[in-house]
Design goal:
The protein has 373 residues and is mainly beta. The protein has four helices and 32 strands. A hairpin with a 5-residue loop joins β10 and β11. The two termini are 22 Å apart.
Length: 373
């Protein structure tokens, strides 16, 4: 029988999770190797250079650019507050002076005796990196960050929006087939990670945002509902930087799809436990999956890691993980042995799949296995 290996989503009862927490540029690392940290603890910090403001002093004072040094009142590198005078003329008998007030608070970086312009640098922007998960610092990246290690239950979704969030798990459905509805959500769920079943509508998700719920984890979501949330049509799936109060993690695909039974059972097992989640998704080279990390207080060693990565065969239930059919589910009809040429002119191994009643040829690399009962 034809058989092919294909990537899948991880559903791990017990595993070692290592997270890199790295600053965007060099700064100060605040923790030491071996130190225990909680999710909200700051592990590293730095300052981003402030924005630059250009001020044409020569024009504003009606002077020659070559004479600008005689009129600037702030030394290079000197700081000032918004509204402070940074340059002025001598006036007539000390009167009728022309002045240039600072448009922002910051420092004088430089000025030019050729253009007559001054370069003002706004105050640095502090950046702090928190631990994201509870665990132990197992490696220091000098001047940049740390690696944090923890024993955890670990679940990946297929798609998500919104960045990192955290809170206590609250399962609000009785089964993985049940949809999250408006009446299930209330103000007591603020800051919690809500677990649903098969689907959540746009209206209900918007209510979750208004209630300041930390995150929603659910089996399916309508692709057409992403545009009203994001403000644009999502093409290649690169998410995670959205300014959303409530992160959304979809575990199965687009549409109304029952959450996988192993995923649902694992989340239900840890109902009430603290969890860290991240909706960031990248479906291209360097795949990033949305994730749910549940730190374990004790490791039993009884469970083996469960991973939906497996082989696909004729009849396998699959999900497409790249455009133009991203998130669609179907069944494998056949797995031809011969390489086939795609529109990109590349020769690849393909699968013939049936999706929504239509048969189509899809590169095997664009497919992943879906767990079944």
């Amino acid at each position: 029988m034809a058989h092919a290996y294909t990537p899948g989503l991880k559903v791990l009862h017990e595993t070692k999770v290592i997270k890199e927490r790295r600053l965007p540029l060099k700064g100060d690392v605040l923790k030491k190797k071996g130190e225990q940290v909680s999710p909200d603890e700051i592990v590293a910090k730095t300052d981003l250079p402030g924005n630059v403001q250009m001020v044409n002093i020569a024009n504003l004072l009606n002077i020659d650019a070559a004479d600008i040094a005689d009129y600037v009142k702030i030394e290079k590198g000197g700081s000032f507050n918004k509204g402070d005078v940074i340059a002025e003329t001598k006036g007539l008998f000390g009167l009728f002076k022309s002045k240039v007030p600072a448009p922002v608070s910051g420092s004088l970086e430089s000025f030019s005796e050729i253009t007559g312009q001054a370069v003002l640098r706004e105050a640095p922007i502090p950046v702090e990196m928190d631990a994201y998960i509870s665990g132990k610092v197992n490696e220091i990246i000098p001047e940049e960050g740390v690696h944090i290690e923890t024993d955890a239950a670990f679940i990946q979704g297929i798609f998500g929006i919104g960045g990192e969030s955290r809170g206590d798990i609250k399962v609000i459905v009785k089964s993985r087939e049940e949809e999250i509805t408006n009446d299930m959500l209330d103000a007591s769920m603020a800051g919690k990670v809500i677990i649903g079943g098969s689907h959540i509508s746009l209206a209900t998700y918007k209510k979750a945002i208004s209630l300041k719920i930390a995150a929603i984890v659910v089996g399916g979501f309508n692709y057409s509902d992403l545009k009203p949330i994001l403000g644009y049509t999502l093409g290649v799936a690169i998410t995670g930087s959205e300014d959303l109060i409530t992160s959304l993690i979809v575990t199965e695909g687009f549409g109304k799809i029952n959450m996988g039974h192993r995923t649902f059972d694992l989340l239900k097992q840890y109902d009430g436990n603290f969890v860290s989640v991240n909706g960031a998704t990248q479906i291209r080279a360097g795949v990033i999956r949305p994730e749910i990390v549940i730190p374990l207080k004790k490791v039993s060693g009884k469970h083996k890691d469960i991973d939906t990565s497996t082989g696909i065969t004729n009849g396998s239930l699959i999900r497409v993980i790249r455009a133009p059919y991203f998130g669609k589910m179907g069944r494998v009809v056949s797995l031809p042995n011969e390489l086939q040429k795609m529109e990109s002119e590349t020769m690849v191994r393909v699968a013939e799949v049936e999706i929504d009643g239509n048969k189509m040829v899809v590169p095997r690399a664009n497919l992943e296995m879906v767990e079944t009962d």
